[in-house]
Amino acid sequence: MNFPPPRRLPWLLLISALVMLVDHLSKTWVSAHIRIGGAIPIIPGILRITHWTNDGAAFSLFADSTSPEAVRWGLISFSLVAALVVLIFMVRMGYRFSLSTIALALILGGALGNVHDRIEYGSVVDFIEVQIFSYSWPDFNLADSSIVTGACLLLVDSFLTGRDEEDDEEEDDEEEVGEDEEDIPGA
Question: Annotated catalytic, 126?
């Protein structure tokens, strides 16, 4: 494989490291200051800082499994493979800053933040609770937010990239039409 020089890669890895650090510090603070099941209202009826542990995946999937250790190590393995894939993409694209590379850095930091907790503690701390009208979103943490933000940025970038390619094709078509007109006498 021939990779371009990764001049921006250290900065992208720094973004990932900062996500991991802020995620770890926030979970540590919540664990030290809020008892499990407790909450601090931030915006009454909308946003609370809570303290829950999550043995499962997103939205507590697999949390009630009869083989919690298998689920734990399966999630760790899946997350590490996904983080490796993201890192490979970052190395390949890391010669410049773009929406995609920043998104990948956010995803990598979030994935590794949650993997660290699963390895170290067996679960992750979820502490952000959002309620909109009567719907209460499942509690999440900063690592989860980073992963979702990164995924959304990748989606936005894919739409923008598609638009840029369409614009380039239209410009190419206009140039071809212009060239054809030059060949027609009197045009």
Answer: yes
pTM of full prediction above 0.90: no
Catalytic residue among 55, 144, 164, 183: 144
Encode pLDDT of 100-113 as tens digits.
Answer: 999 999 999 999 99
63 phi/psi in degrees, rounded to 5: -65, -30
More confident: 57 or 96: 96
Which of 55, 126, 139, 173 is labelled catalytic?
Answer: 126
Q: Which residue has the tokens 């410049």?
A: 96
Q: Within 10 Å of residue 85's Cβ, how many Cβ atoms?
A: 13
